[in-house]
Design goal:
The protein has a single domain (2-220), classed as TIM Barrel. It has helices at 2-7, 9-31, 50-59, 82-95, 111-116, 126-130, 136-152, 164-172, 188-191, 201-220; strands at 37-41, 69-73, 98-104, 121-124, 155-161, 178-180. The chain is of the alpha/beta class. It has a 6-stranded parallel β-sheet. The longest helix has 23 residues, at 9-31.
Length: 221
């Protein structure tokens, strides 16, 4: 990936991936408007309008609508021109495309990206999800990201969820969406749906605990 980015091949690779999504899942997405399609972009994509032109050319009159598309800003390399990046992100959002900060807290940018870029979604990196029980700092970081997303009006997604126990713990911390590992049974997706917590005992328990915490806060005031 680093070679593709430094050599410039990443631009044609990204265009190819976007075109291929129409072939592979175009019909599926046209029949399921709630599905989202995410593709990572790197710092170079935010230096000029080529990515906007590519998005319009490929998806402008396709079976995948702009509202189904999520572009992910990675932190592998720093953004060299924050003002230009903000303009490009704003233009994506004007089309109906949402923009996520991928692997939040693990690379360049961090809070500066959240402050300056107008990000729609924070994605919690898998390394924090994997260590929720073994490192106290992981729970604290997830808790902080959830609170920050709520205050900034952003969505939040946990990446790489692979165990039932993680679903319950993430819901306790206020996370309601997750990217599920492929080897987990499909019904675990239901546990991440905030509108239907009754489908899972762990989710019901988490909701009850959150209710008790809210009651304590109210009494404390």
């Amino acid at each position: 990936m680093q070679y593709a980015e430094t050599s410039g091949h990443i631009f044609e690779m990204t265009r190819h991936i976007m075109r291929q999504t129409l072939v592979d899942v175009g019909n599926l997405y046209s029949k399921n408007p709630d599905l989202k399609l995410s593709v990572n972009l790197f710092a170079g994509h935010f230096e000029d309008r080529r990515i906007i032109e590519d998005l319009i050319e490929i998806y402008g009159d396709s079976r995948i609508s702009y509202s189904q598309i999520v572009r992910q800003v990675t932190e592998r390399q720093p953004l060299r021109d924050m003002n230009m990046a903000r303009k490009i992100i704003a233009e994506m959002q004007s089309l109906g495309i949402r923009v996520a900060l991928d692997d939040a807290g693990t690379g360049h940018g961090g809070l500066a990206y959240l402050q300056k870029l107008g990000i729609d979604i924070i994605k919690i990196d898998k390394m924090f999800v994997d260590t929720l029980w073994t490192e106290v700092s992981s729970s604290s970081i997830v808790d902080m990201l959830v609170e920050l997303a709520g205050k900034l009006g952003m969505g939040i997604i946990a990446e790489g969820v692979e165990m039932m126990e993680q679903i319950g713990r993430l819901r306790e911390l206020g996370v309601t969406s997750a990217q599920i590992g492929r080897h987990i049974r499909a019904e675990i997706h239901l546990c991440t749906a905030p509108a239907r917590p009754s489908l899972c005992p762990a989710c019901r328990s988490a909701d009850q605990r959150r209710g008790l915490r809210r009651q304590r806060r109210t009494r404390a005031r």
